[in-house]
Description:
Chain A is mostly helical. Chain A contains 16 helices and no strands.
Amino acid sequence: MPWRIVNWLIGRCLFLYLVIVLLLLGLVNRHVAHNNRMNFLKQSEVDVKAFALGAPTIDPAMLRMAIRYYRELLRFIPADGVIHGNMGFCYFYLKDYPRAWGEYQRALALEPQLWTLHWDSAMFLFQNGDVKEAAWIWEDYLSNQDAARKYFAALKDQLRVKKKEDVLYLVQRMEKRFAKDETETYIKLSESYFSLKQYDNAQAIAASGLKLFPGNRWLHYVTGLLDFSTGHLATAASHFAEAIAGNPSDINAYYYHGLCMHGLGDSRQQALDFLQVSKLRAHGVQPLPMPKDSARLHFNTELFFLRYHLNRGK
Amino acid sequence: MYHSFLYTIVIYFLIGQMGFYFLARTLLKDSQAAYIAFLFSLFSSTGMLQIAQFNMLLTYVPAIWFFYFLARFCQQWDRTSWIGMIFTLMLIVQAYLPFYFITVLALVVLIFVLINPGHSKTILVGFFRFGRRYAVLVSLTIVTLVFSLIPAYLAYHSTVTHEVVLPWRQNTVDVFTKGATFAQYKRTTEGGLSSRMSLDDLFSNLDQLVYGNDGFFYVSGFAFLILLMGALNQINRRIVFLGLLFVSLLILTIENSTPVHQFLFEHLFYFRLFRNMHFFLPFLLSVFVLLTAEQARLLLQWPECLTRGQRGRALAMVILVHAGCWMFLLSRENIIKSSYDTIILSFIFCVIALLHKPRLNRYGQPLLLFLCIVFQPFHVIRGHNQLAVENFSPTIAKGMSVARTQPQFSFSRSDFQPVGETPNQKVDDFYWYYLSMTDAPLGYMASQQGFPTFWSYYVFKNFPKDVVREYSRSKFVVYDAVELQTDESMEFSPVIGALREKTDVAFVIADREGVKNELAGFIRKRPSSSTQQAQFISAPSQALDVRHFDANTIRFITDFKEEKFLVYNDSFIQGWVAWRNGVRVPLYRANVAFKGLKLPAGHNEIELAYRPAAGVWLVAMLVLYSGVFLFLLTEAFQQFRRKFE
């Protein structure tokens, strides 16, 4: 009976398929094939990184390719928050929000010290309308500033101990980005409180932000908006004037400054402000979006490389 | 220009697909199976690949027609098929690297002989009989075929004799010694299919196939269903032949992922001459499609041969296969909806066309087949097209805006510098610069692409950059003295020094005895010339003015008071000839890499032109090919008329 089955099978196409599969399994060096595949998929990371750093568009196929790359990478390094975070980034821009959120949560569960991902999670919630939760995460983010700085300092020490000063620039880049996020957190947090109608909190946050970063024109602009909406026109006008000093092409700041002047009865200054707005428009100047309003989240590769350098030669 | 190029390659591709239909009909001996094969092929990634990378098309189309003529010849032993075979072979050896075709042909022959030893002997005898019967025709066509090999041979010869170099094939160390053969195995493995083939690539993200990616395997999902349903079909020699051919090609296409390709690279000489194994992909797809069509042919026989009991078991298998595929797709990410729709359509097709008796009518079945095959590719190709439109290459867009089609002459080269941030963008900038049809910029070697002449590339690579740039700024340099060198005794340091100082002495590569009379006056002046400076001509004047310029010719007039030696800073290569006042005069290699000639005092009309010896052959062959093509057309038309009558 078994021989009859074998004979029957040999005469069928299934047998040929089996031979082909076995031949390929025997001949293909899966390690080399996998390396080839990884090298091919890795190309997408260049495009994704360029997009994260400000390139205007990205081919969705590149984001999908990057996801495939990270998925393959996770087979070798399963507990890496950075990889999950980067996958979240790709899913976010593919507008696959549930998967993006899942990846961010996985990343943070694995590595709570990934500060940029906390920021991204808050931004994610903010963009999806969950402003209260976003504000909560941003508050938490601000309260962890010292821990973050200590973390960066520890990383630097580790690199110095291992005599890897040549890659210190990666930590410096992370620190720079962290500092930028800190400023923007004050802006977004006050914006969140403003939309939650918690005006006192909004003003308190903006004021603390201004104490730390007195020259930041965005914080002046936001504080000006808060003052304007609560009727403090004189202080609002001074903040808008600071914003204009920071960027003489800021159409929005001119506009609100003009409105404040109207409220304060200075019609000459009001006319000058509005004239400036029309001049700037005629020159094609567009109102600047708020920082991060284009929702450019973080794409982390520095920490990944740092780990590689720290673990090498162990 | 760009659009006409696109139309041409699309029409050429369709001619190839027509050939594929005929090939399928000849091999499978079934019109319906040929129709299925045609649809699968037309709506596979064959088109997407070949339109993006038309080098594949240049080999694939004549190769498909060759295999059609070969299959027909082995069945009918007719003269038309023989001429068709020779004609397509002539196209193959001239269009692009013929090694892909040679490999496929070798595999076809090898596997065929292994599977059909008896039939192979009959075919061999048939060839001899045909040769004896039509000896004149066979001799003539083979001579023609040999002639058609001349351009390919000359191109190869120019690399062997170091007239040109292929920088992109070698690293810089090997470029001046290795010719066309790849020195390193690694260089031949860039672009293999193993990097782009996984289950994800076959079934997921099909609406995101990137335009310009010239290495992906896509066939309508219905093909996989047919192959699975055909798993229990009785095996036949045709299926074994196609199956083995498919796996052999696949092994080559995935390059270094198996030891086979490296073995061939090391032991079979011509495997050192080509890379881009993914160029086998159209062949691989065609074999896969033929295998699928053969399986479909066997499946379409079910209504006639299945008993009632067998029909029940077949229905169970159909359900199992379709449900299994559905579950498989559910387990993957980003599966397009039309993949599921194809499973539904395929199930309907199987129930109505394979398990239902009587058969569908003559329109119903082809229509249902059409829907099953085309439904998913329609979605995929639309997505591919959208991505192509969205990511329209800026280089091509810029190139399309160039109105000029004739190169422009200028006495000085521009100081053009690429502005791109990445190396690829820099190369793009150079391409764009070249598309503007102006002179090559200073330094004149934009990238590692193309086939630069040996000595120009040598100068570009080994001479100080500032010296080369400054020297080549002017196209014409006039000298009073000449120093002779030979290839063997050439020393570069005095040349570099002279170019840097602009000394009034040109270095000419020539045999002293051979040029004694022609250049004697210049050689005598040598001792007193070291302090004088050469005359760099940067604008037209009475002494020198250009009258005509195109890619292969330059005509100019000169009027110097004394005799001079002129160096035209354009690459020297065999095939360029010079006429002075209508009389052919010697053209020398001067200052290592450029063209030089003697100018007597007074008025001269000079013409330099590219007239390679093989040029006459090329014209003769063009006439010959046109004749063969017209003959084939007439023959085909007459056959069609006879059939029609």
